[in-house]
Structures are given as structure tokens and as C-alpha cells.
TrEMBL record:
Enzyme class, spelled out: hydrolase
Record note on quaternary structure: Part of the signal recognition particle protein translocation system, which is composed of SRP and FtsY.
GO biological process, one term: SRP-dependent cotranslational protein targeting to membrane
Positions spanned in the full protein: 4 to 451 of 530
EC number, UniProt record: 3.6.5.4
Name this protein carries in UniProt: Signal recognition particle protein
One GO cellular component term: signal recognition particle
Source species: Demequina lutea
Compartment(s) of residence: Cytoplasm
Amino acid sequence: SLSDRLTATFRTLRGKGRLTEADIDGTVAEIRRALLDADVALPVVTTFTDRIRARAVGAEVSGALNPGQQVVKIVHEELVEILGGSARPLSFAKSGPTVIMLAGLQGAGKTTFAGKLAHHLKSQGHTPILVAADLQRPNAVTQLEVVGERAGVPVYAPERGVTRDDERSKGDPVKVAKNAIKEAVKRQHSVVIVDTAGRLGVDAELMKQAGDIRKAVDPDEVLFVIDSMIGQDAVATAQAFQQGVAMTGVVLTKLDGDARGGAALSVREITGVPILFASTGEKLDEFEVFHPERMASRILDMGDILTLIEQAEQKFDQVEAARMADKMAKGEDFTLTDFLSQMQQLKNMGSMKKMLTMLPGMGQAREQIENLDERELTRTEAIIQSMTPYERDNPKALNGSRRLRIASGSGTTVAQINSLVKRFEDAQRMMKAMAGGGGMPAMPGMGG
Ligand code: GDP
Ligand code: MG
């Protein structure tokens, strides 16, 4: 991910007394690679790294910061800049209802976001109404109605009274949007949020429809909703919508997912349109007003968290690997005590599971930890701890009556003991195979 790559880069600078030209070149090259790998658009990468190089070369060595810290500070400031500088608040109409139109590809998260925005505005004392102008998908109107109900905000839907979605969907979204504004004025709603249809790809007909809705409702804001996991497609999609609907703001969704951060960095820089909001989950309150400063900190802070994890991992690898290699070199067996110790290592890392799932690019370790069933680990621990030291070192001695005793001692069943022993034997086989050549398995004990 962007953050761990940047962290790794900064780590190499740590402790340097002063930065040489070569340090700066190396750092800038690494930042460049990290940004490209995070799907940041090439022109944005070039602008960004040029700025960093220029500032890093000219940087005065300050008393408070070492050169490495100074580069971090410069990168942070430039990240803030590229993300838009300061937060841009929503603009409201001077009179009459404020009209906010949402546009974006299908599945981007428009309808979900419509509910969140309505909920947010309502909590600030506004009286929003949601408008279902997505008549493309059969269930779109119903979906918005559900969202509206959850947010406690009314929904204007076409042809009310007709309950079947397929019949309702025959309406004309431009007319629906227009009528909705009239209705909102009549009912004195202060904000009208117009949800529109999207396609899987940029589509001329749909873009025209969005453009027509825009003309018909004369919105105060046109928010382009974009999935932050979209990667390199972000730029082309954003440009198409900029041409088609001339958005005034951007909403980044699914920032909770495995986004590599590229879309966030590219879209603002390429379109010049500010990012106003971020969506970070499926629930109503998983919503943020977008602050470039906070996002930049998050990109860099995540890196710090990652450093901790990397250190933990390295420690795990080194200490455990050395111990295991030593044991195997001496021809000793992999025992249940070893198995338990490895499980406990994993469990420690498992407590970071939630955090890890928010960090992109953790690779194999992350995948294993994500698949970790913590109850299972606790059970394994209980079982092995209920064994005598002799049994732990001699699993073959685990006969029926011993298994029964261990089961009752650990509050488990014999079937669970059997399954554990089987998993242990798999791990043991794996360890034996490893001892014959090759390296350490990443984390044995995770089988079955
Ligand atoms: P639309 O087609 O643009 O209206 O997209 P929807 O609002 O229907 O969202 C598409 C899918 O993405 C749904 O399953 C949503 O629950 C999900 N979704 C939307 N926003 C987010 C988000 O910020 N995070 C996550 N994890 N899922 C989201
Ligand atoms: Mg929708």
C-alpha cells in the first residue's frame, strides 16, 4: 500500500544526520514507485514528486526535525495540497431549497451515500427530502425508500400508489426530478437530494440523462460519487463525468475497503474538483466530511501502525524461525508446545485483525490473520494447556482416555481434540518437509 511503502522509505532516512542528493533521489524514486503502485495517475505522481524533490533539496536543516522527519513533513504537506488543501463545505442555496444531485457509476455508492448525507443534514437541522430519479434498475426506488426510512427522511418517488417497481420504473427521471423540486418547495424542504441512475461503465445515453436532470433541476451541488477502489479507471471516469455533468464536488466511497489510495489522490488533482465527503461503510453513520489534512495524516499514520506490525512480524519471523531452525537442525520434533507457541504468536497478531483489515497490501500474513477464527484459537489454547508436558511433547501418547480427560479439563469435546491433533499433525508434516529444504513456512498451524 501507499502508506507502508512511504513508511518503509522514511525508515531508511531515519537517523540520518543530513540528506545527500543521493538520499533525496532515492527517496523520491521510491515515493514515485509507491504512488504508481497505489494507482495514482502518472501526471499526478510527477507533479507530486517534483514538488517533493524541490522542497527536500532546498530544505533547511531545522533544529527540531532531523532530515528524515523533515521529508515526512514535506510529504504530508504536499499530500494535503494534492487532496485539496482545506475542506470545502457544501454550498447552500441563498433562497429556496438547496438542490444536491448525485451522479456516478452503478454500484459507486450513490444511494447509500444519499441516505448518509440526508441523515447528516437532518442532524444539523435541515429538512431534507430524497428523490428517486434512478428509474433504471428495477429495485432502485425501493432501495432508496429503505434508505430514507432508515435515515428518517422522506422519499419522493415517481407514481406513488403504484407499488410494483417494474411499473414505477417507466417514469421519466427528468420529469420526476423536476416535479420533486416543486413538491419540495411546496412542502418547504430545505434540501433536495436527487439520486440518479448509473451504468457499469461510462455510457453516452446515461450521461445525457444525467446532464438533462442537471439542466432541469439547476442544482447547487452536483456530487460525483466514486468508488475509491476503482484504481486507474478513476481518472477516465472522473473526466467523463466532469464533461457530462460538470460536477461541483466529489464523494469518495468505500474508503473502508482495500482502496490503494490512488483514486483519492488522482481525482482532485486531475479534475480540480474538491472532495467533499467520504463514505466508510454500509451503515448510515459511516460517513465523513472530507478533510484533506486528516486524510493525509491517515495515509501517513497508517504507515506508522504498519511499522509496528512489521516489527512484530519480523520479531515473530526471526525469533521463531531461529528457534525452529535450531530444533530441526538438531533433529528434534515439532511438538504441541511449539504448535501452541505459534498459535499464541498468531493470536497476538489477531488482536490487530480489525486494524489490519483496514490496511491495504498486507499480503499473505494479512490474509491468514483475516481468516483467523479467534474462538478456535482460544479453544486450541485451552486444549493444549490441559495436556501434561509429557503429552505435549509426545502427541502419539494421546490415547482415548487421555483425550477424554483433556476434553473434560478444557471444556471441549473429544471430537474437537481429534480435530486439533489432526491439524497439529498436518503442521508437523509441513515442518518436517521444511526441515528437508526450503525455508520456514510463514505460519504453520493455520491448516484446516
Ligand atoms: P449506487 O448504484 O451508486 O446507488 O450504489 P449503492 O448505494 O447501491 O451501493 C452499492 C453497494 O456498495 C451496496 O452494496 C452498498 O451497501 C455498498 N456501499 C456503498 N457505500 C459503501 C461504503 O462506503 N463502504 C462499503 N463497504 N460499502 C459501501
Ligand atoms: Mg443507486
